[in-house]
Amino acid sequence: MAKIIECIPNFSEGQDQAIIEGLVTVAKGVPGVTLLDYSSDASHNRSVFTLVGDVEGIQEAAFQLVKFASEKIDMTKHHGEHPRMGATDVVPFVPIKDVTVAECVEVSKNVAERINHELSIPIFLYEDSAQKPDRVNLARIRKGQFEGMTEKLKQPEWAPDYGEAKIHPTAGVTAVGARMPLVAFNVNLDTDNIDIANKIAKIVRGSSGGFKYCKGIGVMLEDRNIAQVSMNMVNYEGTPLYRVVETIRFEAKRYGVNIIGSEVIGLTPAKALIDSAEYYLQIEAFDYGKQVLENHLLN
Amino acid sequence: MAKIIECIPNFSEGQDQAIIEGLVTVAKGVPGVTLLDYSSDASHNRSVFTLVGDVEGIQEAAFQLVKFASEKIDMTKHHGEHPRMGATDVVPFVPIKDVTVAECVEVSKNVAERINHELSIPIFLYEDSAQKPDRVNLARIRKGQFEGMTEKLKQPEWAPDYGEAKIHPTAGVTAVGARMPLVAFNVNLDTDNIDIANKIAKIVRGSSGGFKYCKGIGVMLEDRNIAQVSMNMVNYEGTPLYRVVETIRFEAKRYGVNIIGSEVIGLTPAKALIDSAEYYLQIEAFDYGKQVLENHLLN
Prior knowledge:
- The structure is a homodimer of 299-residue chains.
- The first copy, chain A, is of the alpha+beta class and 299 residues long.
- Chain A folds into 2 domains: 4-178, 2-Layer Sandwich (Formiminotransferase-cyclodeaminase, Chain B, domain 1); 183-296, Formiminotransferase, C-terminal subdomain (Alpha-Beta Plaits, 2-Layer Sandwich).
- Helix content of chain A is 34%, strand content 24%.
- The radius of gyration of chain A is 20 Å and the shape is globular.
- In chain A, the strands form 2 sheets. In chain A, strands 1, 2, 3, 4, 5, 6 and 7 form a 7-stranded mixed beta sheet that branches. A 4-stranded antiparallel beta sheet of chain A has the order 9-10-8-11.
- Chain A has 9 helices and 11 strands.
- The interface between A and B is large, with 42 and 42 residues.
């Protein structure tokens, strides 16, 4: 069975259709790679591409996309609502099949080195590829954005992982890294009190003492007049979905509040849901790789 | 995305390695088809092959396997514990991806016609391909076994669906049909009283008034000294796994008995488990085809 890696590069262009279509053409032109999805947001002025491929193909595709973006996108003229620091802002690699996060870290380093070597764009390694604890979090790396990067890189603690302390004049700086697949998962409560959703989000998220691989905030769903615990599950093996659901359930009870539903936003690996089925159905000794039929069909 | 069909032919040979390996060679030689698994049981004197492939490939592979079996297996000399009526006893086709049961019924008819036309083996269509209600159930078709088929086929109500009322002298009779994927699913109880497992099995199985697509019996797990409700879920969309688990749970309570675990035996489609995750996690408006990442990788 072949190894499959996902790559979700974010580009600082969400308006110019010629450039976006150019990126699509580049992505589709690399053997061993499939472009699963791409979406652009004009007000963010940003596009997100989702590709999957084998180890060689995904590295080539990532590099060629970054190269094309560096030739077509001028950050000195970029405006958009979303924080950004480079023509290609961030390039995460995600293990999908028969591949570990550690292998994706290696892939991220290969691509980072090549981008810097051939295109002279300085690179920060982030998430599981980070070389220092304060580079795990993309928001910390990106703080100051494109306009602030010239000065930021001169600080010794913000010397890039690849390249000199000097931004690319038009393509800026890019973050490259490996991470587990992310599942965007929201739990809806039968209350219109957002304070309750906020309190529960604080309980389940890792940053305030909850589950290590859960990020969460309370949000109000205005159209339904209900409060929601909105989460990013950044490692569904380390923090399974059922565990936050059951925790939200017993914490909400304190307020006489119940769970009325949940939402998975966008894509999820099958295993993130099957792990929860295993828990609730109490399945003994289930072997995901061997017993799920579809795993024998992917190659 | 390509359509994927599974085929699980059962052959009346579980001892002669040369014949079994010959079947393996045939299966592996058909383009567009992958042999996922095969297993032989010497006391049953029977082998079960599991193949997946595209619509053309799976039909060709099924035919070539039946042809090889008809040339190598002599039913007049066959002995084994498992009921059987042909060198190839039964050939089910199962929809796996982007294909309906109705399309698998068409596939089964194509293969049935070709087997009869080229090999002169009479065919019964069974399960979802059955042309009469009393031919849905394989056990009813097979009753009398190979030795009784010569007389059985002479009865007007048991005229084959393809071919004359005359068995193939050495290859006997074969059943061909389409069905949903089957999930072998057992629920373990914290009691050593098999009567309770039997009573609950009777409640959940369709044949005695329970769920239409559930077959079940009570069995004793001697090594663990616990009783089990052992089930075949013959259509996990019609009767989801969580529904029988929750029913078993509330029926067992009457006896002060609890569920201590469950088992999935062998392969299961991912969707059979994800449907249950959706229920327990209360996921709203989940789109299995679009939101499960792996579904975009299969082609």
